[in-house]
Type II secretion system F family protein
Amino acid sequence: MPYFQYKGLNKKGQIVSGKKKGASTNDVKEKLYKQGIAAKELKILEGVLYKDLSIGKKVSTKEFVLFLRQLSTLLQAGITLVEAMNILIRQTEKKSFRIILSELENELRAGVSFSEATSKYPSVFSSLFVNMVRAGEASGNLDGILDRLASLFEKQYDTRRKVISALTYPSVIGVVAVAVVFFLLMFIVPTFADMYESFDAELPTITLMVLNAGELFGRWWWIVLVTISIVPFLMKVGRRQSSVFLHYTDFALLKLPIFGVLLQKAAIARMTRTLSSLLGSSVPIISSLSIAQRVSGNEIISVTLQKAKGEVERGESIASPLEKDWVFPPMVTQMIAVGETSGSLDSMLSKVADYYEAEVDATTDQIKSLIEPIMILILAAVVGIIVASIAVPMFDMFDAVQ
């Protein structure tokens, strides 16, 4: 069961607060009532420290999209939101999501709007979701908005999956290469080093470099392993704690050879698809830019959208600040400018998103076909140099003996 943060009044009329474990808000209210506390405010705690181990992990994109599709279908069939939620609770297998849906049902029965109820669970329902649902409630088109959200999350998930797929193969080859080099330097090279030392042979410079590297690995291998293990962690912490570090690492990622173009196209596809969905759902332009900025997934694009929001607040166009940033190609800014002029910005953004999602597909295929031979050649070259550097002097020694 999850934990809830509560605030209420005790029998003396004093304000008290604390944390209480319970299956639902009603369960917590009942427990507090037995303790002489009338609960006024209840909020589920989302942090790791307050999660029951049996609840499980965060809701996956596939589960969430299925939930949105089912909810939209039920609403289109004329079933009320409360009844639809009750049906989906019984169908949901994941305990953590089922608990949240139960809380949403309780909120809806109490007269709280769907957008307000979901806003209390930001780990599942993002600000993008909440604002689009709020717009759907205002326009009376909640089922259509839910269907659009499902499509949006599906497209973003597919794009992200393709990018990860393109990055996975070279990462695996890189790990294998490091493991092979590590094995050679740790176990093979020292054997030859002892043999050459016993013969007191004069060795080529490249052989001496490899032997010294093997000796270094033999003495300090644990430092190398710890460094390799801790660097990703430090990078992650640094990106969370320092906006400057986040900015420069995102800049460096976009400038990477081969992969930078893929990351740039994926980021543009995500940003334009998000903005298109928000504007198409009648979310105000300023709010849409703020949300797109938060979910852009790249600090360079986030900063540019922040500038664009400032320009729009001053009555200027969105395209103007985007044109000044290298991350947005001319085609993107020109289509946005045309969309602003013609009053069809959401439609133009959708076309840009379609184009760049197709570009992500094509670039992913190109990278997969290109990177495999390159990585194999690099691995073969590194291993070949190490093997040759320790084997050639041995053949020279045999020739000298003969």
Summary: The chain has a mean pLDDT of 84. Strands lie at 3-9, 15-21, 38-44. The CA atoms of residues 291 and 309 lie 11 Å apart. The longest helix spans residues 142-199.
